[in-house]
Amino acid sequence: MNSTKRGNKFILILIIIILLVPEIIAYLELNFNFKLTSISTILIPQLGLIGIPVILYFIITKQSIKKTLMFKKLDIINVLLAIGIGLLIQPLLSLINLISQIFFENKISGTIFTLAELPLWLLLLLVAVLPAINEEIVTRGILLTNYKNVNIFKAALISGLSFGMLHMNANQFSYAFVMGIILFILVKITGSIFSSMLIHFLINGLQMVIAKLAIFLQEIFGNSIDYDMIAQEAVSKDAIISLLPIPLILTFITLPLVFLLFYAAVKHNKKEYLFVKSPSQEIEPIKSKDKIFDVYLISSIIIFIAHVVIKEILVI
Questions:
Q1: At residue 148, what are phi and psi to the nearest 5 degrees?
Q2: From the CB of residue 42, how many other CB atoms can be counted at a distance below 10 Å?
């Protein structure tokens, strides 16, 4: 089995697991008085639905963990560049998130503010640290290595697509897709998965800090902040549209800076050859032209689209 087929097959298996297990849990809750805690709703997807399949992947394929996951130490310049990129892409992701909410429901906002009542250290562990490790191992570790013989931009698009689909809802897919592309390219440039883990932690961690701050302000000002309105999953389209100008303006300001930081990263890591049509064979030989679109990837896309249509579009 060639590497791209192996990577696509792994994503298909993950999507099927992530799709079926919640349905099984919902059945148990309905018929056997089985109830998950808010912490369990995070731990099961992160450790059970992703962590265990990753372990089995390495046992079955016998691939090198170190080479596959690119556990390479980042120097201080790459750390600073990653932090800068992580902070500056936030307006873009927020803008995409808001636009997607015009068409699709935000399914996690209520969950975020419910979880925000937990201690900050536990909140960061569950929502920032675990996803930054597990999700990056899958999409910027296993997938990136399996797509090594594919054009960097095509591979980045499919990595972003896979990252978005693993969230199994249209709203999260929209910004996770873009985030996945950005992180994939950055890992290719730095040669280290720690760069994407750092950014992933920053993005998720900042959301949790903001949620904690909202609760803190509510406790101070009481009814001046409507907690229920913040936590509700469905927001009117007019309210969403009214919020668009701020992230839109910020995106126009920050996006050029993001490109500058990527340019600096390319120069610092001497990875200019990644972005030319005929890279030097002495630097990074391309052994074959693997087909990235196969029956496994197409099946994943069909399953995801069908899930969104059934669960989000057809639901009245």
A1: -65, -25
A2: 21
Which residue stretches of 150-192 are H helix? 152-165, 170-190
Residue pair 159/139 in contact by the 8 Å Cβ criterion: yes
Angle at the Cα of 170 from the Cα atoms of 238 and 316, rounded to 5 degrees: 65
Cβ-contact 186, 262 below 8 angstroms: yes
Q: How far is CA 284 from CA 6, 155, 188, in A?
A: 21, 16, 12
Asked if 166 and 18 count as a contact pair (C-beta separation under 8 A), the reply is: yes
d(CA 59, CA 67): 15
Can you give the pTM of this predicted structure?
A: 0.87
pLDDT in tens, 216-225: 776 676 654 4
Amino acid (1-letter code) at residue 97: N
Going by the DSSP 8-state scheme, the letter that residue 73 receives in this structure is: P
Radius of gyration from C-alpha coordinates of the chain: 20
Report d(CA 41, CA 285) in Å as an integer.
44
Count other C-beta atoms under 10 Å from residue 92's C-beta: 21
What is the rounded CA–CA span in Å between residue 117 and residue 214? Answer: 11
296 near 8, Cβ under 8 Å?
A: yes
Domain ranges of the chain: 3-275+286-313
The pLDDT tens digits for 76-104 are 999 999 999 999 999 999 999 999 999 98
